[in-house]
Amino acid sequence: MYYPEPISRLMESYMKLPGIGEKTAARLAFYTINMKEEDVTDFAKNLVSVKRDLKYCSNCGNITESDPCSICSDMNRDQSTILVVEQPKDVIALEKMQDYQGLYHVLNGVLSPIEGTGPEDINIPTLLKRLQNEEVEEVIVATNANVEGEATATYLSRLIKPAQIRVSRLAHGLSVGSDIEYADEVTLLKAVQGRTEM
Description:
single chain; Dna Topoisomerase Vi A Subunit, Chain: A, domain 2; 4-stranded parallel sheet; 13% strand
């Protein structure tokens, strides 16, 4: 189907986003046409702003407007615990919990030999440097419960344990509100292994 050039270019831009195919891109492009011009301008400014105004914290690797980030700068946080996550969005999810008061470290990826991602490609060297310079007693590894996340967690554990720092892993298993009958075997195994005393 023929689209005018501006719509085709906008569709191509939308299709660069994850999960957006041609039909969804066309729907978004035509929706954009009917938006108020000031809303489109604000949208464009916000896209440019996230590229220009955000940076990675030189200490923890989280996205921030200022370096170091507000979490690393907060001396009221527990300096003895670092929770390691894969992506900045994981920090946001954990902060919503409003219970963890330690520090974070964002890997900005995971080990994945299939995709050619090794230890030097993610934010591991900075973590090791932090462990030498700070009074860290525990590192909590909070990578996802998939092959890459488990491989990354195992790798980090082997690197950190010789430094006499406690390494723990987030519990895995059944999510709140789920039914046992619908859980897969790995999830059930992790739930049994991660059980707690009542």
